[in-house]
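Slide 14.
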Amino acid sequence: MTKGGLSLAYISSCWASITTSLTADAKMKFVILAAAVAAVAFAAPKANHLAAPPASAPAAPEASAPAAPEASAPAAPEAPAPPAPSTTVVPILKDDRTNDNEGTFTVDVKTGNGISLSRSGSPTGTNGSVVQTGQYSYTAPDGTPVKVTFVADENGFQPQSDIIPVAPALPHPMPQLALDQIAAGGNVVPVVEVPEERSAPPALILF
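Slide 15: predicted structure.
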């Protein structure tokens, strides 16, 4: 062990060589001196290479500014879901049909909401065309009962019902030419009488 640059072995060897040549009184004085030197040697500061590194103060934490809250756009309100369409099942109370595949047929249908249809047809028209007759009825949204009878032949569909508007009467009689065109379907070419052309009088010749 070394204290202040002096080893204990070196001190002991010096002590042995010195004590052999000293008297008892001198030995006592030398012991006191050696003790004092040893005390000083042990009390000396340690060498730099054995000294503990100086304690360093803990680093202060870096102050950081609080993060600004991220600005977010307000969420758009969700559009309400469209209402589910209401579905009403209408029962079929009657559905009778016949057909001989030669133009003769019948149809008779009735539903649970008050609709009815009856129709029949046969090839009794012009050139074997099918003539149909029948009727249908239902209830209007305002609660008015509706009934329509019809005939369909070579003259087209001809319905009859109280709900069909009627044209007002004409304030004056229609000319016969217009009536003839209506009766003929507008295919009549009107005949217009042209007055006879008169001949011009002979010119006077002056000499």
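Speaker note: The mean pLDDT is 76.
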